[in-house]
Specification:
Layout (H helix, E strand, L loop, with lengths): L11 H6 L2 H11 L8 H12 L23
Length: about 70
C-alpha cells in the first residue's frame, strides 16, 4: 500500500473558497513550484503506482504538492 497526500490542487472547492488574489499570493510565497497543482498531477502518480512499472514500490508516502511540505520531515 502507498499513500498519495495531495497539496494544493485546483478544484471547484478551491476556486469557490479562495479568491484569485489569495491563490496567487500563496502560489508565489508558499509553493516552491509557484502554482497550484492540477488534478492530472495526482492522476499521473496514481496511474504509475497502479502500473507494473511500480511493482516494487510499497509503503511509500509520495506527496504531490509542488514542494509545499518541504519542511514536513
Amino acid at each position: 500500500m502507498n499513500c498519495v497526500p495531495p497539496g494544493r490542487i485546483i478544484s471547484e472547492q478551491i476556486l469557490r473558497n479562495y479568491p484569485p488574489e489569495f491563490r496567487q499570493r500563496e502560489s508565489e510565497e508558499d509553493i516552491p513550484v509557484g502554482e497550484y497543482g492540477q488534478p492530472a498531477d495526482i492522476a499521473n502518480l496514481v496511474c504509475f503506482l497502479a502500473s507494473p512499472l511500480a511493482r516494487y514500490i510499497t509503503g511509500a508516502v509520495i506527496p504531490v504538492d509542488g514542494g509545499l511540505r518541504r519542511y514536513q520531515f
